[in-house]
Amino acid sequence: xxxxxxxxxxxxxxxxxxxxxxxxxxxxxxxxxxxxxxxxxxxxxxxxxxxxxxxxxxxxxxxxxxxxxxxxxxxxxxxxxxxxxxxxxxxxxxxxxxxxxxxxxxxxxxxxxxxxxxxxxxxxxxxxxxxxxxxx
Length: 136
Hints:
This protein is mostly helical. The protein has one domain. Helix content is 68%, strand content 0%. The protein contains 8 helices and no strands. The termini are close together.
């Protein structure tokens, strides 16, 4: 099963968009699945349901940080690498969907938001895989 399919299955089980993206990749990076679900819960629904930064975006940012984030304050190279990848992710996602804000992404949609969020999960996973060389 591809990472995209895993993330979509996680979402269909009832987990948030941020959990679906983060937990799918974090488990392969040494973080246990339950902990990854807990860590990413607050980011769902655009930051705690406030429809701010989309959970698929923040979930991806956390994966980028898990891989490249600094562990020593003086590690400027890791900090810059992380920021560059976050910016690249943002630009790619924004180019496709014209926003990274949950409320804007859902604007004008009258159906169940969960029906729409799957495409954002897919985009997030594809961009992560392109940026970080994950197996598809």
